[in-house]
Amino acid sequence: MIAAMARAATTSDVFNAIAEPQRREMLVLLRAGERPVTDLARELGMSQPRASKHLRVLREVGLVRDRKAGKQRLYGLDARGLRPVHEWTGGFERFWNESFDRLDAYVQDLKQARQEG
Length: 117
Prior knowledge:
CATH superfamily: Winged helix-like DNA-binding domain superfamily/Winged helix DNA-binding domain
CATH class: Mainly Alpha
Largest sheet: 3 strands, antiparallel
CATH topology: Arc Repressor Mutant, subunit A
Number of helices: 6
Strand content: 5-15%
Number of domains: 1
Number of strands: 3
Helix content: 55-70%
Distance between the termini: 56 Å
Oligomer: single chain
Order of helices and strands: HHEHHEEHH
Structural class: mainly alpha
């Protein structure tokens, strides 16, 4: 039996950073605007230290920025860091477009067969 290997704990790669579902959820929450870590932690049902660790990873790969606002630190989305992901997934656009074109043709064939039958 092969033992499952943990993913390398690198923070220099945006793909690795967003592989974690809770980090993706943080990014979704931050789309609405800046929030303090306590709000993010409460919304995601995790401890503040754990939320802070996730935010640190996201900040180090350039997906999150932070700023001091009085006694608290606010975190905000910096979606420019998602450019490598967008460019990589964009390479599959032709595949999806062709798949949707085939599906559309199939649906049109079904509609025509019903009208004739």
